[in-house]
Write a structure and sequence with these properties.
This protein is mainly α. It has 3 domains: 60 residues, no CATH class; 110 residues, DNA polymerase, domain 1, CATH 1.10.150; 201 residues, hpI Integrase, Chain A (Orthogonal Bundle). A 3-stranded antiparallel beta sheet has the order 1-2-3. Helix 2 crosses helix 5.
């Protein structure tokens, strides 16, 4: 725990001055804390001694630490009846959002914002200066692990607050966006605490082969993992893929990724960027899908699949599984962790399969301009020039065939008992 600040006193030109450290304010360009100087006064009119000046400085520092108000500034008034605080506004705005990460943003806000003075501030009192002080304040707050939070973590906390305050401007609750004039050097950046940690967020060729060839892992889960590894889809997109999304083409079949399963709303929705991506079906994935459609799927679910059926539906009620019965993402994550242990592979996130696909493309020498479109296609509002610059299908298939991934999936075991 850091040593408590006590302030200091100095005698200058015949007067005593109390100096306190403004550690909740934005730091100077040199990285040092700003300081404030206050003239030492005494209400009883007695002589100001060195001991009294030090005591005065200690009290001033303690008041600043408790109220976060810079000496000489007027403390923000309490919310008037009928007004709304920043925390209430941000929380209400997040509860109305439907994007996939809204629940996580709400949890982050509840964990960080109430620990700062901005939470109880009236919404109409927010200024850029207050936001700058808040950014300096959250940088000094410990995370749940008791350590300083990574810049990326703080960025994830600040971003929904900034968007909520921008919406307050639209609703005429604020006269200006307080984040608009904040210097870029004061904003948290998307940087990890350990820059080398992301290098391990990918599976190697050997890891993928062990995972997909482990006979102890159920076939339906291995089919899903192969889909994620060889298409680069997000988990929410992979569990929503239907047989009708795979269409014959030459030289490779075409997989269209146009929807995702929204776990919180329990509904099919457009992809995260509203873009529709088309990915060539790798020969190994085509072989597995052909076997899965003809033999594996009917054995697992008791009937032949229809075009609107999911490629890998949930197995809770196999005979009733059809479009709309998407797998829960939490269940997929837990199963993935158990399957990694069975295969003897280091623990990874499900999203690391997307990183793995990108790495496989780079290792195989696939052209970045082509491979990037499979994972980060242009948004729906892309200009005509961007659309016309899409590489030909033959060129995309040529790049996909550079990937070397194999597995033994194709010899099924009897499905488990009901």
């Amino acid at each position: 725990m850091a040593r408590r600040r006590t302030g200091s006193a100095l005698h200058r030109r015949g007067k005593w001055i109390a100096r306190i450290t403004l550690h909740y304010e934005p730091a100077l360009p040199s990285g040092e804390f700003r300081r404030a100087e206050i003239a030492v006064t005494r209400a009883d009119g007695k002589e100001i001694t060195a001991a009294y000046a030090r005591q005065f400085a200690h009290g001033a520092q303690a008041r600043y630490d408790e109220t976060h108000v810079v000496p000489g500034q007027v403390e923000a008034p309490a919310p008037a009846p009928g007004s709304i605080t920043v925390q209430a506004w941000v929380e209400g705005w997040l509860k109305q959002q439907t994007y996939m990460e809204a629940t996580k943003d709400l949890a982050r806000m509840r964990a960080w914002l109430p620990r700062t003075r901005l939470a109880k501030l009236p919404l109409d009192q927010v200024t850029p200066r207050i936001i700058a002080a808040w950014l300096g304040e959250i940088r000094r707050l410990p995370s749940a692990r008791g350590k300083a939070a990574a810049p990326r973590t703080l960025r994830n906390v600040v971003d929904p607050v900034a968007r909520a305050l921008r919406f307050a401007v639209f609703e005429e609750r604020l006269s200006q966006d307080p984040f608009a004039v904040i210097p870029s050097e004061l904003r948290p950046q998307a940087v990890d605490a350990d820059p080398t940690k992301r290098r391990a967020r990918r599976l190697t060729q050997a890891d993928v082969h062990r995972l997909l060839s482990c006979d102890e892992i159920p076939d339906d889960r291995r089919v899903l993992y192969l889909l994620l590894v060889l298409t680069g889809t997000r988990m929410s997109e992979g569990v929503a893929l239907r047989w009708s999304d795979v269409t014959p083409d030459a030289p490779l079949a075409r997989l269209t990724i146009a929807e995702q399963w929204h776990q919180r709303l329990k509904a099919r929705m457009p992809t995260k960027t509203d873009a529709v991506r088309e990915v060539p079906v790798h020969p190994e994935l085509q072989r597995v899908l052909t076997w899965w459609q003809a033999e594996g799927w009917p054995r697992w679910y008791g009937r032949a699949p229809k075009p609107d059926d999911l490629i890998v539906p949930t197995r809770t009620h196999r005979r009733l599984a059809s479009v709309g019965k998407c797998r829960r993402q939490g269940a997929v994550y837990r199963e993935f962790q158990a399957d990694l242990i069975l295969a003897g592979v280091t623990r990874h996130r499900v999203h690391d399969t997307r990183h793995t696909f990108v790495s496989f493309c780079a290792d195989a020498g696939a052209t970045p301009e082509v491979a990037t479109r499979w994972t980060h296609a242009g948004r729906a509002s892309a200009s005509a020039i961007e659309i016309y610059r899409t590489p030909s299908w033959a060129r995309q298939c040529e790049e996909m065939m550079k990937l070397k991934v194999t597995c033994t999936l194709g010899l099924t075991d009897p499905p488990p008992a009901e």
